[in-house]
Every structure is written in structure tokens, then in C-alpha cells.
């Protein structure tokens, strides 16, 4: 039976690193062709868009994607990654007035099954978008039920210290952590709900469908991934590397980073095992000015780069 692993996380939580770590020990595959980075397809948030299910606007992201664009994206993804004889019938799917919601769901679930069959033995999808969107998660749960006996699923919830996550996102995209922290809160509230619905998988409870691992623990040992390796029918070598420990608590070394977590975000982080010392930050008087200037410069630089590439392409036409 084909197997499907979905790594669910927030942005800047290390899902790409965990994917590479698993790939060193497990014969797994990802989609080969996608318009997104790091082998991501955004399959389930696009499915939620195509079905016009409610989704949360995400910071510095195209999600949620407009419904018709999402439908075309899904069809293109399947055409790019499946041989013709494996493609589900998609002609009617693109005609918005020709299909019912039930037919659309059947197409989406059939598309996922075909991807799992194409990328055997284990098809891996990771996304820092799905965990924020309960509509996407509910579709995954429905697909697991629909394909029971056809595809074996495992969901891996990857948690990272919110301070590290928010600091990484600020460094990469200059996303204000004051706003982004509430996406972290929503994502990991959803993970708790998902684990309650499907059960947490451990070696003692192999019937659970959700494995929750912390990034920080994987920087010390691969032991928390034991249920995942069991699901894959393998184990890592004795000298398999862990995640990079140098990426931990970098925000504490930044003398300008003065962000502090909201009480409700800190409370949820502590439920995942983080301590005050992992979460508390000192006030930095210049932080608001530093944050706003860095974001303004980032946007102006990005606008300039986009203009440069537009003009360059225009000259080539």
C-alpha cells in the first residue's frame, strides 16, 4: 500500500531540514515539478480554495489563493507530475458550473491518491501553510477516511520555539512578529485539535495518526522520530546527523530584536514544553523603529528587483 507523510508546521519551523533529514534514512519522494520552493505543492490549501472553503489570510503569502487559480494550479500540478494514463478526469473540473462540490472533492482525493501511487513507496508533502488553515486540515482528514485501505497516512506536526520561528521569519521576510505570532498560535492550536481527533502516534500507540516533534529535540537526537521511522519500516544509521543546534536561540544574540510574546502565545508554547528562559526577551527601546525601517527597506528593495526583472524581460520580447 502506498504511504503518505505530511509534515505540518508554521513558516520558518525547519520543515525543509526535517525533510532532508528523513530523506537520508527513508526511501521517500516529493513532487518533482511545482511552481513553489522546496518541493511544496500547497495541495490542500489550494483544494480548500477550489472548494471555496474559508481560509485565514496569511502574512507575506499568496494564501489563500483565488478559487479558479487554485483549480488550474491543481490540474497543472497533476499534469506535470503524473503520466497521462494516471490522470483523473479534469476537463469538467475546470468548468466551474459543470461540477458539484462532491465531484470536486472526488477529483481532489483521486488526485492525491494518484500522486501517492506515482511516488511510492512513500510520498512526502510538507507545507508551512496547511496547519494555519483548518479547512485544509479537515480536507486531509476526510481524504484519510476516503482512502482508507488505499493509502496509509501519517501526519507529522513539527513544533519550533515561537521566538526562534518569528525571529527567522523576520530575518528572511521582515514579517512583523507582533502579527505573525497569531499565525503560530492558530497553527499549533490546530495541531492540538488534530492530535485529539486522530490520536498521537507513539511506539506504545502505533494506531495514532499524528506524531508531534519539536525542532529543538531533533537537534539533540533523532529518537522523537522513532514512530515515523517505524511507519516507514526503517531506522536511521547510528551516525545519522541531527538538526543544526547553532540555529537555536539566535534571537537572544540580536541586540536590536526587542519583541516579546503575547501572554496567550507564551501559554501555548509552554504547553509544548518550552520554558520561560526559552521564551522571555528583554525590552529594546529601538525595536519598533528598527522593525519598521527594516520592513520598509525590504519592500522597497523587493519592488526594485521586481521592476528590474520586468524591464529586463520587456527588452527580450
TrEMBL record:
<dbReference type="Pfam" id="PF13469">
    <property type="entry name" value="Sulfotransfer_3"/>
</dbReference>
<keyword id="KW-0808">Transferase</keyword>
<dbReference type="GO" id="GO:0016740">
    <property type="term" value="F:transferase activity"/>
</dbReference>
<protein>
    <submittedName>
        <fullName>Sulfotransferase domain</fullName>
    </submittedName>
</protein>
<dbReference type="InterPro" id="IPR027417">
    <property type="entry name" value="P-loop_NTPase"/>
</dbReference>
Amino acid at each position: 500500500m502506498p504511504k503518505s507523510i505530511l509534515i505540518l508546521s508554521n513558516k520558518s519551523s525547519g520543515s525543509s531540514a526535517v525533510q532532508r533529514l528523513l530523506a537520508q534514512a527513508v526511501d521517500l519522494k516529493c513532487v518533482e515539478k511545482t511552481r513553489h520552493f522546496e518541493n511544496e505543492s500547497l495541495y490542500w490549501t489550494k483544494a480548500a480554495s477550489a472548494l471555496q472553503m474559508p481560509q485565514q489570510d496569511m502574512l507575506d503569502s499568496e494564501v489563500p489563493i483565488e478559487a479558479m487559480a487554485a483549480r488550474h494550479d491543481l490540474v497543472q500540478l497533476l499534469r506535470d507530475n503524473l503520466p497521462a494514463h494516471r490522470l483523473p478526469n479534469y476537463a469538467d473540473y475546470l468548468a466551474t458550473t459543470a461540477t458539484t462540490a462532491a465531484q470536486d472533492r472526488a477529483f481532489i482525493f483521486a488526485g492525491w491518491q494518484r500522486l501517492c501511487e506515482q511516488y511510492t513507496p512513500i510520498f512526502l508533502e510538507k507545507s508551512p501553510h496547511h496547519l494555519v488553515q483548518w479547512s485544509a486540515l479537515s480536507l486531509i482528514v476526510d481524504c484519510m477516511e476516503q482512502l482508507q485501505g488505499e493509502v496509509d497516512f501519517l501526519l507529522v506536526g513539527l513544533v519550533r520555539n515561537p521566538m526562534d520561528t518569528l525571529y527567522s521569519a523576520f530575518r528572511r521576510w521582515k514579517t512583523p512578529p507582533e502579527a505573525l505570532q497569531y499565525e503560530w498560535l492558530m497553527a499549533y492550536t490546530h495541531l492540538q485539535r488534530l492530535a485529539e481527533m486522530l490520536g498521537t502516534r507513539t511506539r506504545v500507540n502505533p494506531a495514532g495518526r499524528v506524531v508531534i516533534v519539536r525542532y529543538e529535540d531533533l537537534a539533540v537526537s533523532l529518537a522523537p522520530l522513532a514512530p515515523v521511522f517505524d511507519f516507514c519500516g526503517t531506522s536511521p544509521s547510528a551516525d545519522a546527523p541531527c538538526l543544526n543546534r547553532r540555529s537555536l536561540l539566535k534571537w537572544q544574540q540580536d541586540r536590536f530584536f526587542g519583541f516579546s510574546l503575547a501572554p496567550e502565545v507564551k501559554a501555548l508554547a509552554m504547553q509544548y514544553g518550552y520554558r520561560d528562559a526559552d521564551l522571555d526577551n528583554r525590552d529594546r527601546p529601538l525595536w519598533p523603529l528598527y522593525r519598521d525601517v527594516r520592513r520598509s527597506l525590504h519592500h522597497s528593495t523587493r519592488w526594485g528587483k521586481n521592476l528590474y526583472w520586468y524591464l529586463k524581460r520587456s527588452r527580450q520580447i
